[in-house]
Amino acid sequence: MFSFGEDIGIDLGTASILVYVKNKGIVLNEPSVVALDTNTGRVISVGSEAWAMLGRTPGNIRAIRPMKEGVIADYEVTEKMLRYFINKAMSRQFFKPRVMVGIPSGVTSVEERAVRQAAIAAGAKQCFLIEEPLAAALGAGLDIAAPAGSMVVDIGGGTTDIAVLSLGGIVISKSVRVGGDKLDESLVRYMRRYHNMMIGERTAEEMKQEIGSAWPEERENKEVEIRGRDLVSGLPKNIIVTCDEAHEAMKEQIDTIVAASKEVLERTPPELAADIMDKGIVLTGGGALLHGLDIRLMNETQLPVHVAENPVQCVAMGTAKALVNLDLLESARSFKRSQGRG
Ligand code: ADP
Ligand code: MG
After folding, report:
1. Are strands 281-284 and 160-166 parallel, antiparallel or unpaired?
2. b vs e for 44-68, b when ≥16 Cβ sit within 10 Å of the residue's Cβ?
3. How far is the CA of 284 from the centre of ligand 1 (A)?
């Protein structure tokens, strides 16, 4: 059945891409990975299919994450990836949709153009861009239009983006290149250094979710069995790792996230800081699910800290909400409009 040009909101994340279609909710949630033929540059697969190829590709295929570290490292590939997702989300639509894409606040105008062109080429009637912290706040249900300060800490795969918002705009923000990926990498390093063991990216991710913590005293799961390869014998081995060890391994990265959040608070004008004292800080992004991060931030800032209801979906939901509230955002000039033909 055809549906009338429904609005589409896209979270162009470093770890995953989510597509939100009005009245349907999240219709796509796939890793932001692209597999390329290195000889021809041709895209072989995108999303989940390409993710399965990571670390398992033969010589002529390369699986890459074009958005790594929050900047569009490879915008041609990003364009192809975006086109693939828009086409997939629109497959049964007859009318062209309006598309809102959440982009990292640091992208250049060249990258912005690439995103817009990709959306138009993929069949969007119009393409709007919104800075991710605004989308995250909208998706978390914050009233960003109010003349009151709110604070969002979005912990993604490649970056942590911290912003204080008021009147539909970003008042102060800071982005650090520490997110879930760096936490995984620190676990890999720890296992190599202290257990002479090599573990893969996926194992590190499991370890983080199962025993990782920013406040290990309150972690219920205290240990987990980790599978890897002994660096001395070269053979597979299993060992038990504790949550205190995982905390120790990730400590430096967690400290960076906490310090950056405190820095933003210190630079926040007093009236807005007072609002944040009342309402608290909201955590979004997949990294918000790291056990104990809210407790740690609460202790360090002495402010209430809440994890958003669906932290992973906030940006995507926010982009869709932003399409409904274009006027609000237009007045704050927090988005840029494309020249897309209707
Ligand atoms: P991005 O916006 O960069 O695409 P996401 O908001 O999707 O990133 O978050 C992805 C990150 O969230 C990954 O690094 C992943 O490891 C992390 N993550 C997801 N679930 C958990 C969890 N339960 N505990 C800790 N980290 C998590
Ligand atoms: Mg994100």
Report:
1. unpaired
2. bbbbeebbebbeeeeeebbbbbbbb
3. 10
- pTM for the structure as a whole: 0.91
Q: How do residues 169-223 score in pLDDT, each as one tens digit?
A: 999 999 999 999 999 999 999 999 999 999 998 899 999 999 999 999 999 889 9
Beta partners for 162?
153, 174
| Residue 181 near ligand 1, beta carbon < 6 Å | yes
**Ligand 1 atom, smallest distance to 16 CA:** 4
Which of 85, 282, 284, 312 to probe ligand 1 with, by most ligand atoms within 8 A of CB? 312
Q: What is the pLDDT of residues 104-160, one digit of tens each?
A: 777 788 888 888 888 888 888 899 999 999 999 999 999 998 999 999 999 999 999
Give, for ligand 1, the residue of 16, 105, 187, 224 to mutate: max count of ligand atoms closer than 8 Å to Cβ.
16
Residue with CA closest to ligand 1 atom 12: 286
For the chain, give me the number of helices (H) and strands (E)?
11, 17
Whether ligand 1 lies within 6 angstroms of the CB of 157 is answered as yes
Percentages of the chain per state (helix, strand, coil), in multiples of 5: 40, 25, 30
Q: How far apart are CA 204 and CA 155, in angstroms?
A: 17
